[in-house]
Write a structure and sequence with these properties.
Number of helices: 2
Number of strands: 3
Structural class: alpha+beta
Strand content: 15-25%
Radius of gyration: 21 Å
Amino acid sequence: MPIDPRSRLGRRRKFWFAACGVLLAYAAWAWYAGLAFSAGTRVEEMDWNGDGAVSTEEMLQSAYAVGVRTMQQGARTCRSFYWIGKGEKQPFRVSCRTEVGDGKKPKD
């Protein structure tokens, strides 16, 4: 029985399946490793060298070099930023926020 050539996967479709698979695997690893871009870090917070401006290099570092640990103590939430790949995971910056109340308006 002959195989219809249109039903087989072509090179272009195989490439896109492979590319999507690689991107999905990377996104899963980034979430597991706690990379800054997958932890909801805003662009304004990506000033890793503290010069007051966020460069393209710093934004790219959030995708492979900077990890985030989030700790919550009551109403206070702290995020520790550390370099991935270094022997120790000492934070180079800690950012804390205290949220007062639950955000709901009181009933009259």
